[in-house]
Amino acid sequence: MPVWAVEYSGTVPGMYERRHQALLSRTQFFIRLARSIAASAAIVTAALGIGIVGYHQFAGMAWIDAFVDASMILSGMGQVNPLTTTSGKVFASLYALFSGIVFVAIATIIVAPVLHRLLHHFHLEGRK
Question: Band of the pLDDT at 118, cuts 50, 70, 90?
């Protein structure tokens, strides 16, 4: 079996190993972590795209200004350019709320494999 293929015997394919299963090797764990980081990057890219198009359409910003504002809101830094339209202000408010949810989601996706490995390790250690 190739190194990148991780075999699971749980009820849902691709989920974490069960408590009666052995701990994954470091290579397989880092592959799992890389998949989580890739999924997070895809979510950030999609959220940034939504922000760029929204600022361009609703606030009437140039593409580069829309990119700057979307990336600053998504990173939690705040608005850069002043908003002059009502639709732009409504979009910015909704996008800021959406960005907070995206932040929590990607933090969870990245931390979950590490936390699972830690808890699984302690569970296996307790059985010895």
Answer: confident
Query: Which tokens is 74 given?
Result: 């998504």
Residues in the chain: 128
- Phi-psi category of residue 16: left, alpha or beta, with phi > 0 → left and psi -120 to 50 → alpha: beta
Asked if 73 and 51 count as a contact pair (C-beta separation under 8 A), the reply is: yes
The pTM of the full predicted model, rounded to 2 decimals, is 0.76
Question: Mind giving me the DSSP string for the chain?
Answer: --TT-----SSSTTSPPPTTSPPPPHHHHHHHHHHHHHHHHHHHHHHHHHHHHHHHHHS---HHHHHHHHHHHHTT----SPP-SHHHHHHHHHHHHHHHHHHHHHHHHHHHHHHHHHHHHHHHHHH-
CA distance 74 to 11: 35
